[in-house]
Amino acid sequence: MPSRQEILNAKILVVDDSPDNIELMEEILREEGYANVSSTMEPEQVCPLHREHNYDLILLDLQMPGLNGFQVMKSLKEIEKGGYLPVLALTAQPSFKIAALEAGARDFISKPFDLLEVHKRIHNMLEVRLLYKELAQYSRAQQELALHDALTGLPNRRLLEDRIETALQHANRSHAKAAIMYLDLDGFKAINDTYGHAYGDEILKMVSQRLLASSRKEDTVARLGGDEFMVVLGDIHSLADAQGPAAKLVDALVEPFFINDLTLRLSTSIGISIYPDDAESVDALISIADYALYEAKRAGKNRYCSTGTAPTGAAVKTPAKQGVPELVPHR
Ligand SMILES: Nc1nc2c(ncn2[C@@H]2O[C@H](COP(=O)(O)OP(=O)(O)OP(=O)(O)O)[C@@H](O)[C@H]2O)c(=O)[nH]1
C-alpha cells in the first residue's frame, strides 16, 4: 500500500473554467497537505500537460466552454491506452455522474463540495492509482527479468533467439549477411576453483562489459549461461566482416582482470557461423557456431574459428551443403 507521504506527494491537476473553483480546490488540497498541486483553466491543455507530467489525479470539471470534460476524457484515453484514467469528475449535475463514470472517470465529486467526501474520494483514488503504478512497474521489471540474465544484465537465450531472428530478417531484406559468434571462456573453471564463485561471478560481469565495449551498439551481446556468451552481428557482407570483430573480442578478453588485489587472466574461444552461407535457421546457425567453437578449443583456445574461406584465400567447404564443416582456426 502507498504510504500517506506518497499519497500527499502525488501529482494532481485541477481543471476548471472558474478561477474561484480552482482557488477553492487548491486551498482544500493544500490544507490537507497535498504538495504537488497545479491547475489549468484551459481544457485543451490537459492532454499536453498530462503527457508531460503524468498526473496521478486529474480533478476535472465536466461543464466548461469550448472543450467539455467528456471530450477531455476521450483525448486522455488516447494517452493512457489500455491504462488507468486518473480522472475524478467534478459536477453540479446529478445526471452527469453516471455519464462521467461511463466516459472513463474513476469517480466523481458533487458540487457544492462536501469536504469530508472530497478528502475521502481523493485519498481513495490516489491510493488505487499509486498501487496501479507500482503494479505496472513490477510487471515491467518481471518482463525484463524473464528476458535478461540476472548476473550480467545481458539478454538471455530467449531474447537472443528473437534478436537472431530479427537480424536474419533484416539481412534478407537488405541482401546482406549476419554472423553468429559463440564464445566460451578458456580456463574459467580454474578461476572458480582457485578463488571461489564470487570471483568467478565478478569476472563474468567484467567479461560482459568488455564484450559490450568491444561491439557495435547495434550488435547483440547475450549470455547463454555458465561461461558461454553469444554476439550477433547484423548487416555484414562477408565472413571477413565478422573476423575483425571476433579478433577484437579475443584480444579484449586476454587483457588481465583486476579484482581487489588479484590479477586474473583468462581468454576466450569463438566459433563463427554466417547467415545465409552456413545455414538459414537459428538452430542450425547456433549448432554450426558451436561446432566451430569446439574446433577453436581443439586447436589450442584463445582464437576464433569459422567456416568459409581461410585468410590465405583457400576455399573450404560450407557445412550446410557439404555436411561436416571444414573449419579454419585463427589466432
Ligand atoms: N562463478 C560462476 N561460475 C559459473 C556460473 N555458471 C557456471 N559456472 C561455472 O563455469 C565453469 C564452466 O566450465 P568449463 O567451461 O568447462 O570451464 P573452463 O575452465 O572454461 O573450460 P574450457 O572451456 O575447456 O577452457 C564451471 O565450473 C561452472 O561451475 C556462474 O553463474 N557463476
Automatic annotation (TrEMBL):
A Pfam match: Response_reg
Coiled coil: none
InterPro entries reported for this sequence: CheY-like_superfamily, DGC-Regulatory_Protein, GGDEF_dom, Nucleotide_cyclase, Rev_trsase/Diguanyl_cyclase, Sig_transdc_resp-reg_receiver
4-aspartylphosphate: modified positions: D61
GO molecular function: diguanylate cyclase activity
Domain Response regulatory span(s) in chain numbering: 11-126
Domain called GGDEF: residue spans: 176-309
CDD domains from the UniProt entry: GGDEF, REC_RpfG-like
Region (Disordered): 310-331
SMART domains: GGDEF (SM00267), REC (SM00448)
Keywords, in A-Z order: Nucleotidyltransferase, Phosphoprotein, Transferase
Keyword Transferase appears in the UniProt entry: yes
EC number: 2.7.7.65
PANTHER family: DIGUANYLATE CYCLASE DGCT-RELATED (PTHR46663), GGDEF DOMAIN-CONTAINING PROTEIN (PTHR46663:SF2)
Protein name: Diguanylate cyclase domain-containing protein
Organism: Massilia jejuensis
